[in-house]
Amino acid sequence: MPDYSQLKHLIVTVDDGVATVTLNRPETLNAMNRELLQNSIPSLWPMLQKDRDVRVVILTGAGDRAFSSGLDVKEAAGPAPVQYGRARSGNLQLTPRAFKFTKPFITALNGLCGGVALAFVSDADIAIAADTAYLFNPGVTIGQLATYAPLTWTRWVPFQSVMRMLLVGNRERITAQQAKELGMVTEVVPADRLMDRAREIAAMIAYNSPSAVRHVKRIMWEALDVGLNEAHANGQAIMREYAGHPDLLEGPKALVEKRTPNWAEIDD
Fold first, then answer.
1. Which residue positions in the chain have pLDDT lower than 70?
2. CATH numbers and ranges of domains, the chain
3. pTM, entire model
């Protein structure tokens, strides 16, 4: 098991195949400083990918006020600009998607979520929110161009809703219920039920074939980058890669025999 304790400002626990990662700077509303952006978070995803005890990941924030307020503005106001992740291209090198993380990823919004932290909502396989949570993008209000999550959302969220969020900055906030209606999150639950519900969803996913889950995830995320016909062609190609996998037989066999499936291990 990797030594997660070396990751500053993150708390990582693993239980029954589910890793719970907590952004741990509650005194700053879990704002993301240089250490988180350049070291801890970019190091996290490769470690979780290699951890054979982890099948699903949940990300949340410490405390009950904030998931993350986004960029630590005190550092942003300093002489040295804060870089997002270990940038190897023009893309944000911060979220699991940027690291081609293949395991299911759930974001549990326990409070306010803004700026760069919105990427962990737009790039989540499943996002859920406490009824006290809200989203906002302060970018233009503080002279920043924070467009990563909004550009991703334009694939399924109404364009004008995304544009409004960008243009009004921190003068307006999207409630958890509004976020659900827009498709930014899939479910809103009472705040005291948030983590229980996230773990319930994670357990449902962890029960399934790890290989089938990862192939499905790959098919769906890659579809966002291409047109429909190409997405179907790519999906068929990935299905051909999966053909002959032992889980294709094990799943139906376990169902007929009324037992828990013995899924094949994945070598990361």
1. 76-92, 268
2. 4-206 (3.90.226.10), 209-257 (1.10.12)
3. 0.93
